């Protein structure tokens, strides 16, 4: 049996399929640039969590528009990460780029949406720390 690690779920086939989903919903998505940036010189040495963070960072670099626009582009792709695990970079994206007060409502809506296809368990924690009152109220709701 081959030595398979969870990080191997983030492979060329996964990123090709993901890119095709983005293109389906947003034809201007730059697949070649995305793949080039994903498979940088450090890719093979990246562990699981680093690959998730790297995916979110590259998406932020490649997608056009402000945070709200980028979330609108990401949302249609989330249901295509059907295994419940590979899509964990979606909440990671929100955590990395949506912490500003001005993005709070969009971020919380996005975390609620993405958690249907993955888990926002880790991404929500910084929001609890930074926006304690609002988050506690949101969680009670």
Keyword list:
141 residues; mainly alpha; 60% helix; 8 helices; 0% strand
Strand percentage lies at under 5%
Report how far the terminal alpha carbons are from each other: 47 Å
Please identify the oligomeric state: single chain
Q: Tell me, what's the shape?
A: globular
Which percent bin holds the helix content? 55-70%
What would you report as the Rg, rounded to the nearest angstrom?
A: 15 Å
What's the overall average pLDDT, rounded? 92
Spell out the helices and strands N to C.
Answer: HHHHHHHH
Structure classification = mainly alpha
Give an overview in words.
This protein has 141 residues and is mainly alpha-helical. It is 60% helix and 0% strand. The protein has 8 helices and no strands. It has helices at 12-25, 31-38, 48-62, 67-74, 89-97, 104-114, 121-130, 132-140. α3 crosses α5, α5 packs parallel to α7 and α7 crosses α8 (132-140). The longest helix is centred in the middle third of the chain and has 15 residues, at 48-62. The radius of gyration is 15 Å and the shape is globular. The termini are far apart. The relative contact order is 0.11. The mean pLDDT is 92.
Give me a quick take on this structure.
With 141 residues, the chain is mainly α. It has helices spanning 12-25, 31-38, 48-62, 67-74, 89-97, 104-114, 121-130, 132-140.
């Amino acid at each position: 049996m081959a030595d398979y690690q969870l990080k191997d779920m983030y492979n060329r086939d996964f990123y090709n399929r993901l890119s095709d989903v983005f293109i389906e919903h947003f034809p201007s998505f730059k697949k070649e640039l995305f793949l080039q940036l994903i498979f940088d010189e450090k890719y093979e040495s990246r562990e699981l969590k680093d690959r998730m963070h790297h995916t979110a960072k590259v998406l932020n670099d490649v997608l056009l528009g402000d945070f709200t626009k980028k979330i609108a582009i990401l949302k249609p792709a989330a249901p295509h990460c059907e295994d419940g695990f590979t899509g964990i970079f979606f909440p990671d994206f929100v955590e990395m780029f949506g912490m500003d007060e001005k993005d709070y409502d969009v971020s919380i809506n996005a975390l609620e949406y993405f958690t249907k296809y993955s888990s926002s368990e880790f991404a929500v924690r910084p929001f609890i720390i930074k926006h304690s009152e609002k988050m506690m109220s949101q969680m009670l709701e």
